[in-house]
Design brief:
Elements: E1 13-16, E2 31-34, E3 45-49, E4 53-57, E5 63-71, E6 79-84, E7 90-93, E8 97-99, E9 108-114, E10 126-134, E11 144-147, E12 151-156
Parallel strand pairs: 3-11, 4-12
Antiparallel strand pairs: 1-2, 3-5, 5-9, 6-8, 6-10, 7-9, 10-12
Length: 170
């Protein structure tokens, strides 16, 4: 008769010691919490951008897009949104947008333009990403999900006629 061993599944516990950096003293308590409770939580804040693609004329009309926040708990401090790109020919105004706690759900706009360049490689699509900073830890860094994560700027040659874009559909 073969013996079959069954392994009991045990939960993993992580020690939480208030005297972690000191030597344990007599009578000091060490408590344990489940490791699943210490796992990183999914972000509950989303920075929503109005578009994932902008069409901009080189040396001509600008493109516009908006950003606003969706959240379950409102922010307690101002939030700063900064666009980031490696493209030296892109100009983004304003360079940062500040959201106050009471207006974080309302859209604010960035304007993107491209300087006139003669190099053909500058008309290749360029990308924008965004940094979100705040004293409120729920609205800072990796705790914010971006939708879409990357915004692509498609650049068109400015040698011909073009329409001026106002960003409001006119």
């Amino acid at each position: 008769m073969s013996a079959v061993r069954h392994r009991r599944r045990q939960s993993v516990l992580v020690p939480v010691n208030p005297n972690a950096h000191n030597t344990p003293r007599r009578g000091s308590a060490v408590s344990y919490v489940s490791k699943s409770n210490t796992a990183k939580a999914k972000p509950t804040v989303t920075a929503r951008y109005s578009s994932d693609t902008l069409k901009v004329v080189e040396g001509g009309s600008s493109g516009f897009y908006s950003v606003h926040f969706q959240f379950t708990t409102p922010p307690t401090h101002p939030i700063i949104v900064s666009p980031m790109t490696n493209a030296h020919t892109l100009r983004i105004y304003p360079p940062v947008i500040k959201f106050n706690p009471e207006d974080a759900h309302l859209p604010q706009f960035f304007r993107v333009s491209v300087l006139h360049e003669t190099d053909d490689d500058t008309r290749a699509p360029m990308t924008l990403e965004h940094s979100v900073q705040s004293i409120d830890p729920s609205f800072c860094g990796y705790s914010v999900m971006h939708e879409p994560k990357i915004l692509t700027v498609a650049i068109f040659h400015g040698g011909g006629k073009y329409l001026m874009s106002t960003g409001d559909g006119t």
